[in-house]
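Materials and Methods. Structural model of Dihydroorotate dehydrogenase catalytic domain-containing protein. The 112-residue sequence of Dihydroorotate dehydrogenase catalytic domain-containing protein from Homalodisca liturata was retrieved and submitted for structure prediction as follows.
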Amino acid sequence: PNTPQLTTLQSGEILDDLLRAIKDKQAKLQEYHHKYVPIAVKITPDMTESELIQMADLLVQHKIDGIIATNTTTSRELVHGLDHSSQSGGLSGRPLQLMSTEVIRILSSKLQ
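The predicted structure was written out as tokens:
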């Protein structure tokens, strides 16, 4: 969330191209070092269900080794009106629990 325009890398053709490039580099490094290093992708809880499903499809297609659910959120809905709720950057902790649980539910049902 602290990286401007990071969300543009999380869907569609841009994500497809990024994952392809990462897996190509992973294969080259494995060949060179004779060691396989797994790749995991950390997912934002700010995605819609359809965006999560599309991402899950691409992660499977590119044989990504793991998913980290979830990163921080840029949403301030659950802390609106509280002290420091207007700070920029990623929000983590208890306010994120329901959002993260929903991401896990969606991914679990899609990836089973």
